[in-house]
Design a protein that fits this description.
- The complex is a heterodimer.
- Chain A is mainly α.
- Chain A has two domains: 58 residues, no CATH class; 227 residues, MetI-like fold, CATH 1.10.3720.
- In chain A, 76% of the residues lie in helices and 1% in strands.
- Chain B is built from 14 helices and no strands.
- In chain B, α10 packs antiparallel against α13 and α12 packs antiparallel against α13.
- Chain B is globular and about 75 Å long.
- Classes of the chains: A mainly alpha, B mainly alpha.
- Chains A and B meet through α1, α2, α4, α5 and α6 of A and α1, α4, α5, α6 and α7 of B.
Chain lengths: 312, 279
């Protein structure tokens, strides 16, 4: 309230001395900024920063809700356990495969589709509507749709296609290797439209005269793409890659709904492992240390992103 | 001539394929929601069937009613959206327009919080809410939903505030309108569109949230996303009912998504478009 009255008063006061007035204006602006910003920053500190500190604290403790009498300070015990835990290394490996393959697939498919759709003179609106559907759906619902209607043996859409092609029926979510491919396909299905829409919007803004010049220079389609289009849309691609990596790293609900991390631990990326450890096996201390690794990876990628943005 | 006809035919085929891959699973789910259980398990899957409303009756009035869950989602998403906008709009204005020490680092901080994976926060939330009796309460979950909706909303609003010409507020300030009144009467009307889009996105994200809801919710606070998940464990093969429930659960976001489709790209790239200049 003090800010309100003081700022109002300052604005109404007659300007005696120009330099003095500028100074009060600046300090008035500072106070006003603080007044506007402080509530939001306070909420963010309480809901993100403090919980993260608490997470780090938990990760050096034994917290097992199944055996509460064992709780206590554990030092680096959880991290030492992690280094010798094959399930952890498996989940880390799966996270790497999951993140890299989904991001590459999304960018490659999204960019190819955007380049092709750009050639279609009419009907882009219909396509945009169709591709927006997956993005607005809750990932958990997408996972359930795929688990039942799309990937279920015999009755699912994919089996319908493979059977009619004479390739036979498969247990898409029951076989370890197929399950991993399936969850990658689910994520790619849901988020490729994002890459497609962003890149389509970027391509549409490119100046046509550059292409004209290149065409006069007898550059073929591939040369035009590599030497003109690609450099021009590089920033957009970088942005898509970063955002898609973040989404892939926090992917949870779709896999959880489709396979629950299984069969066994075939689709258990780090998120799933941390969840299962914490809320199925109730070992929150170890779960916290797994979550810390996830935070570390995210932090590293964010850092890279800030570096790249500076370079741009 | 002939070559270009082949070309355009190929393009149309491709467009059709696109529609098929992305829209068909959703349309298929919509169709399934009108099938009887017998038609669902017909082999090969059938496109011609007598539509029935039984599944919708079951998920609205029956034992597996999701009305309570729709209400839960509605309360949770509305509170989250309201509080988020109350905090985000002023903060975004400060970040976009005002000069103050620590501006860069505060913007950085907000951006960094947007990157946090929810799995990193869920364990502390669970332990704290359990201690203070906040599990399965709307207030507890709303507070936690702010952790992801607030940074997002701030950055989206910043991009809208930046589009306003500086001259407008300078003129208002020279007229000695005062900062609060300038913001309220001059600036905010200019970003009405941005506020609408941001509101839609915050609501959509809150509606679709799953991890926090499944861990921190319970019998009292159980949004539709969690209800859908429970559906499949309780009613294993009742796909038609699952589809009907999912259609009801997703109807709000599908409608919102279609209405706001032009703004979707901007909303999805928030934060990343910032910093490197506008786009």
């Amino acid at each position: 309230m003090r800010h309100l009255t003081s700022s109002g008063g300052a604005a109404k006061a007659p300007r005696a001395d120009a330099a003095h007035g500028a100074r009060t204006l600046a300090s008035q602006e500072r106070r006003f900024a603080l007044f506007l910003l402080a509530p939001a920053l306070l909420v963010l500190i309480v809901t993100t920063t403090i919980p993260l500190i608490y997470l780090a604290w938990n990760s050096v403790h034994r917290i097992d809700l199944g055996m509460p009498w064992l709780s206590g300070f554990a030092g680096l015990e959880n991290y030492v356990q992690m280094s010798g835990d094959p399930r952890f290394w498996n989940s880390l490996w799966l996270t790497l495969i999951y993140t890299s393959s989904t991001v590459v697939l999304q960018v490659v498919i999204g960019l190819s589709l955007a380049l092709l759709v750009l050639q279609i003179p009419k009907g882009q609106g219909v396509l945009r509507v169709a591709t927006i559907l997956p993005i607005v759906l809750a990932p958990v619902v997408v996972g359930l749709f795929w688990r039942t209607l799309v990937l279920a043996p015999d009755f699912g859409l994919v089996d319908l296609v493979t059977r009619s092609l004479g390739l036979g029926s498969y247990s898409w979510l029951g076989d370890p290797q197929l399950a991993l491919i399936s969850v990658i396909a689910i994520h790619t299905w849901q988020w490729t439209p994002f890459a497609f829409l962003v890149l389509l919007a970027t391509l549409a803004t490119l100046p046509p005269d550059v292409y004209e010049a290149a065409r006069l220079d007898r550059a073929n389609a591939w040369q035009r793409f590599v030497h003109i289009t690609l450099p021009l849309i590089r920033p957009a691609i970088v942005m898509v890659v970063i955002l898609r990596m973040m989404t892939a790293l926090s992917a949870f609900a779709a896999i959880f709904a489709a396979t629950g991390g299984g069969p066994g631990s075939a689709t258990e990326i780090l998120n799933l492992y941390a969840y299962r450890t914490s809320f199925s096996e109730l070992n929150l201390g170890y779960g916290a240390s797994l979550a810390m690794v996830l935070m570390g990876i995210t932090l590293a990628i964010s850092y890279l992103m800030f570096r790249m943005r500076k370079a741009r | 001539m002939n070559k270009s006809r082949i070309r355009s035919l190929a393009l149309w085929l491709l467009a059709g394929l696109l529609l098929l891959v992305w829209a068909f699973p959703v349309l298929w789910a919509l169709m399934t929601s009108f099938k009887s259980e017998r038609d669902v398990l017909a082999y090969p899957p059938t496109f011609f069937f007598t539509p029935t409303l039984d599944n919708y009756r079951a998920v609205i009035f029956g034992a597996s009613s999701i009305l309570h869950n729709l209400w839960s989602s509605m309360v949770l998403s509305s509170w989250t959206t309201l509080l988020t906008m109350l905090f985000a709009v002023p903060a975004a204005y400060a970040l976009a327009r005002l000069h103050y020490p620590g501006k860069r680092s505060s913007g950085f901080y907000v951006l960094a919080t947007q990157m946090l994976p929810p799995m990193g926060l869920i364990i502390p939330y669970y332990l704290v809410l359990q201690k203070i009796g906040g599990l399965d309460t709307y207030s507890g979950l709303t507070a936690i939903y702010l952790s992801f909706s607030l940074p997002f909303a701030i950055w989206l609003m910043v991009s809208y505030f930046e589009d306003i010409p500086y001259e407008m507020e300078e003129a208002a300030l020279l007229d000695r309108a005062g900062r609060v009144r300038t913001l309220w009467y001059v600036i905010l009307p200019q970003v009405r569109g941005g506020i609408a889009v941001t509101t839609i996105f915050v609501f959509l994200n809150a509606w679709n949230e799953f991890l926090f809801a499944v861990v921190l919710g319970g019998n009292h606070v159980r949004p539709v996303t969690v209800a859908m998940f429970n559906f499949i464990s309780v009613e294993q093969t009742q796909w038609a009912r699952l589809a009907a429930g999912a259609m009801l659960a997703m109807a709000p976001v599908i409608l919102i998504g279609l209405a706001a489709q032009r703004h979707i790209v901007k909303g999805l790239t928030v934060g990343a478009v910032k910093g490197g200049g506008r786009r």
